[in-house]
Amino acid sequence: QVQLVESGGGLVQPGGSLRLSCTASGFTSDYYAIGWFRQAPGKELEGVSCIHSNDNNTDYVDSVKGRFTISRDNAKNTVYLQMNSLKPEDTAVYYCAMTIGNYACNYGMEYWGKGTLVTVSS
To answer: In which band, very low, low, confident or very high, does the pLDDT at 25 lie, cut at 50, 70 and 90?
Structure first.
């Protein structure tokens, strides 16, 4: 059974940085995509970033471009989201999600973690 576990959330001041991790287990495919999503209080789920397992393709929502960087360590089955220059509007529960067998990164991804809370506040 595929499981995703997020970590790295917490409280940070505006302008600060955090690195989120998403560790996946229970799968054997080399062909998958992992995405980061977030849901702010009272708002809908939003796609943040996505990365493929076997190429250098990445994608970001406009609001985080230049501030967030997604990366992966295939040996550790872990995807990271480095978040710099954080703003109060980045406050949300961040989820990672995974699809296996294709590179489709969207709200219909098959497997989801439980989320980690990021709070940006002074």
So the answer is: very high
